[in-house]
């Protein structure tokens, strides 16, 4: 369990806009932060640096691992997880699938952190 909870990094719309404006570079920041927060909270997982390396080399792997780590986090908390590793199959739908995946994953993270006392930044 972390010493402190971080607020949600940015809103879903802001991250999508920043990813588009920066030609995808912002997605590396999002991946680092998400994977690092998950590892810090869960005590297991990829972590930020490995998450970014995986995204650069084989991004589709993250489509499965991030929801899987979120699922485990919810289950350990005794809650029904809103996503699972199977959520990664959204990558089969280009562009739209990525947006649906991201929105659902980000909402799942935001809801979890808010339930733990984090506030929007």
Task: Explain the overall architecture.
The protein has 121 residues and is mostly helical. Helices cover 63% and strands 0% of the residues. The chain is built from five helices and no strands. It has helices at residues 12-21, 25-42, 48-58, 60-76, 96-115. Helix 2 crosses helix 3 and helix 4 runs parallel beside helix 5 (96-115). The longest helix has 20 residues, at 96-115. The chain is globular, with a radius of gyration of 13 Å. The relative contact order is 0.16.
Features:
121 residues, mainly alpha, 5 helices, disordered N terminus
Strand content bin: under 5%
Give the helix level as a range of percent. Answer: 55-70%
Question: What is the helix/strand order?
Answer: HHHHH
Low-pLDDT residue intervals, each spanning 5 or more residues: 1-5
Give the rounded overall mean pLDDT: 87
Question: What is the alpha-carbon Rg in Å?
Answer: 13 Å
Helical run tally: 5
Global morphology: globular
Task: Tell me the structural class.
Answer: mainly alpha
The description of the largest β-sheet is: none
- The number of distinct β-strands equals 0
Distance between the termini: 21 Å
Give a brief outline of the structure.
The chain has 121 residues and is mainly alpha-helical. The protein contains 5 helices and no strands.
Chain-wise SSE layout:
Layout: H1 12-21, H2 25-42, H3 48-58, H4 60-76, H5 96-115
């Amino acid at each position: 369990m972390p010493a402190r909870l971080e607020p949600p990094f940015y809103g879903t719309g802001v991250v999508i806009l920043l990813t588009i404006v920066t030609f995808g570079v912002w997605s590396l920041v999002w991946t680092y932060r998400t994977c690092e927060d998950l590892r810090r909270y869960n005590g297991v997982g990829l972590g930020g640096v490995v998450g970014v390396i995986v995204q650069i080399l084989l991004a589709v792997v993250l489509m499965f691992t991030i929801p899987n780590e979120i699922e485990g986090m919810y289950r350990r908390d005794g809650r029904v997880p809103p996503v699972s590793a199977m959520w990664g199959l959204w990558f089969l739908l280009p562009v739209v699938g990525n947006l649906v995946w991201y929105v659902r994953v980000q909402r799942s993270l935001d809801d979890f952190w808010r339930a733990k006392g984090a506030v929007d930044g």
